Amino acid sequence: MRSIWKGSIAFGLVNVPVKVYTATEDHDIRFHQVHAKDGGRIKYDRVCTVCGESVQYADIDKAYESPEGDKVVLTDEDFAKLPVAEKHEIPVLQFVPSEQIDPILFDKSYYLEPDSNTPKAYVLLAKTLDQVDRVALVHFTLRQKTRLAALRVRDGVLVLQTLLWPDEVRSVDFESLDGAGEPRKQEISMAETLVESMSDDFEPDLYTDEYQIELKRMLDEAIASGSNKVIRPEEPAPQEMDAEVVDLVAALQRSLEATGRRSGTKSESGDKAAEKKPAKKATKKAAPKAAAKTARKATKQSARKGA
Fold this sequence. Notes:
Blueprint: E1 5-11, E2 14-22, E3 62-65, E4 71-74, H1 76-80, E5 89-97, E6 106-114, H2 120-132, E7 134-142, E8 145-154, E9 157-163, H3 185-197, H4 210-225, H5 243-306
């Protein structure tokens, strides 16, 4: 669990540092609204009825409209001026007997964890509430709204249960009950006997949400069978290369090709030069030998003439 609030319980002159956690969770299966024709998800747009433009959430203020039609627009700064309980304190107002709180007043429940290295004050308050069999009425401010709440103990842990304000509980008066006849003693006796035969200790684990179980089974079977109610996710399209990247790759390819051509030109020139160089060397070496041979022949001829 993740803490949603930090503060302290003000118990007389004693402060009890605590962290607040949501005590309950909803397991209902969530559905999206979709277009029946093609299964496309329905999206909602915040549109101004005056200018017709879409409005970002940050640009939305709150307005009150009186029965006479007068509209009052309030900003966050206006709400900040309103009196609220200390944001990080849960002051104890009084202690009352548990049975005096009508269960219809209970709203949301939160677990409180000690937020101290020495949770002695936390344990003291929990033990005291457990011994006196009373609940503490407190003020609790969450999300800029001050609520009345009941602080009690459950399995050694402090539990905070927000309460509805008395004027939030509707009064009821059904005309269908007017003039209803009183049941006879025999009828009441038989009803009490039936209640006795069905009475037992409350064990919440014996009860399950059959609707959610069957709904989950229906969804799993539809997915497994691949029926026409199932819309498979589309295969992700292969990512196309960005135009700039394509241009860069093409430029690099052309550069490599150009480098290859230049390398080939140098290699061919070098081969031709290599072929010519040995011929030049051979000519240079052969020239002195030919001259020496000519000189020797001339010497022999001169010697024969002298003879």
